[in-house]
Amino acid sequence: MDCSISGVLIFGEMDERRASIIEDKLIDILIRAEERGRDSWGIVYLTKKGEFREEKGVGPASSSLAGKRGFLGPDAVAVIANNRAEPTTEVVVEKGIDDIQPFVGDRIAVTHNGTIANDSELERRYGIRKRSRIDSSVLPPLLERAWNGSLEDLQRILRDEVTGSYAVAVLDRSRPGRLWLATNFKPLYVMWDWSANALFFSSMDYYMQDPDKAPWESNVVRRVNPYTVVEIGVDGTWREASLWRSGSGNRRRVLVIASGGLDSTVAATSLKRDGYDVSLLHFNYRHKSEEREREAVREVAKALEVPLIEVNMDFFKLVGHSPLLGEGDVNKARMGEAGAEFAHEWVPARNFVFISLATAIAEAWGFDAVATGVNLEESGAYPDNEMEFIRLLNSVMPYATGPQRRVELLMPVGHLVKHEIVKLGLEIGAPLEHTWSCYENGDKHCGLCGPCYMRRVAFKVNGVRDPVPYSLPPDDEEAFWRGTRDYHRRMNNS
């Protein structure tokens, strides 16, 4: 099922004022959360004496919960709640209290968002019985039978025993004042409310936020990381454990999106030096310098002695609208520094498309990570080279891949500018002499486009002449490279 789960862990002593604040907040959260469930709503709270109290209703929360007060007693220490979206396969026409979440057992209460695909198997394996035909109702008896109460054991059960999707909140009547939260890829957020001295949680961050408040008036909202189980206590406990299954061992496999240029070549060399099992992935996407890039990446793969996967694609012919795809002149009015500091040759969503395809290949072929050559220099002109782009994509990767394979995004040179990338490449022996950076498709680098300009200056800053030739007048070339080592020395002393 696709529901919303919510609740609160209450710190300190309750009084009438705090109870009113917490009730108002819970009702507001449940009404906002109707977008994820309108078939029923439920609230279960645990008292300090270890007793469960229930409030449940059929239909959307706003129809019967709005304006409701006094349901939270002064002895409440923790609350879990649910907005249920009833899936077609689990329609219950005549609902009883046992068919409405949160589900309450003899000792355990659970609210769950997701699908337990092996509920019948768990019943047989552990000799337990659900109180409802709804799959989530297997969780209280399962935990009462199989869980020893530790964070590590809950980690084991959710990771190794339960098949399906989940964000869950668990209360144990034998241990009031403790709350367990866990999620694989279902959304889950927590918020500390200073006015209530309480920790709220819900399926979406904006269910708990007040959009009309200034940042300094708002409470801090934090996402529970995907594939994480957390134990929280009113004694200040916050312990986490990972729900990811073990990877492919110590030598992690990484798929490097490689253009044949400086950045991806240094990134791949750096990863290989750090012990990764590297493979290169190159896209032939029908751009101007495709032939030269293909030659370069093949030579780089040979020099690094790593496998190369090539993908031929016509997708960007449909996209168009870029000089690199043959629409316009790459160099006209875009030479030198001007070409390096603005994205004149922007190809719409290119890195986004490449990363998406690389992620699919990585998941299917058993790679642990996808790496790119995004870098600090080009992030000044290209938004998809910004470190934040990769960081934010990484945060959604658990939702882009299946639960059996974790794929991460790496950016080995993301924090470096071009002359630092050249410096690193020289230090680690990257095959820079085989790389191709030019936007044109000539026999030599044109020396005029933005990438050529950046490359030449980056080598000169490092006091080294670029090992690749340029199609520039020989006298101009000699004049540019003359005094390179002195230039390097002056740069370092400045």
Care to describe what's here?
There is one protein chain. The protein has 494 residues and is an alpha+beta fold. It has two domains: 4-242, Glutamine Phosphoribosylpyrophosphate, subunit 1, domain 1; 253-493, HUPs (Rossmann fold). 32% of the residues lie in helices and 21% in strands. The strands form three sheets. The chain has a seven-stranded antiparallel sheet, covered by helices on one side. The protein is elongated. It starts with a strand and ends with a helix. Mean pLDDT is 88; it is low at 330-334 and 338-343.
Beta content comes to: 15-25%
Percent of residues in helical segments? 25-40%
Structural class: alpha+beta
Query: At the fourth CATH level, what is the homologous superfamily of the largest domain?
Result: HUPs
Binding site for Zn(2+): 438, 446, 449, 452
Binding site for ATP: 258-268
GO molecular function, one term: zinc ion binding
EC number: 6.3.4.20
Essential attributes:
single chain, 494 residues, alpha+beta, Glutamine Phosphoribosylpyrophosphate, subunit 1, domain 1, Rossmann fold, 2 domains, seven-stranded antiparallel beta sheet, six-stranded antiparallel beta sheet, 15 helices, 18 strands, 7-cyano-7-deazaguanine synthase, ligase activity, forming carbon-nitrogen bonds, QueC, nucleotide-binding, Ntn_hydrolases_N
Task: Describe the secondary-structure layout.
Blueprint: E1 4-10, H1 16-32, E2 40-47, E3 52-58, H2 61-64, E4 76-84, E5 103-104, E6 108-116, H3 119-126, H4 139-146, H5 151-161, E7 164-172, E8 178-183, E9 189-193, E10 198-202, E11 220-223, E12 228-233, E13 238-242, E14 253-257, H6 262-273, E15 277-284, H7 290-304, E16 308-312, H8 315-319, H9 336-340, H10 350-365, E17 369-371, H11 387-400, E18 408-410, H12 418-428, H13 450-461, H14 474-481, H15 484-493
Parallel strand pairs: 14-15, 14-17, 15-16, 17-18
Antiparallel strand pairs: 1-4, 1-10, 2-3, 2-4, 5-6, 6-7, 7-8, 8-12, 9-10, 9-11, 12-13
Helix pairs in contact: 6-12, 12-13
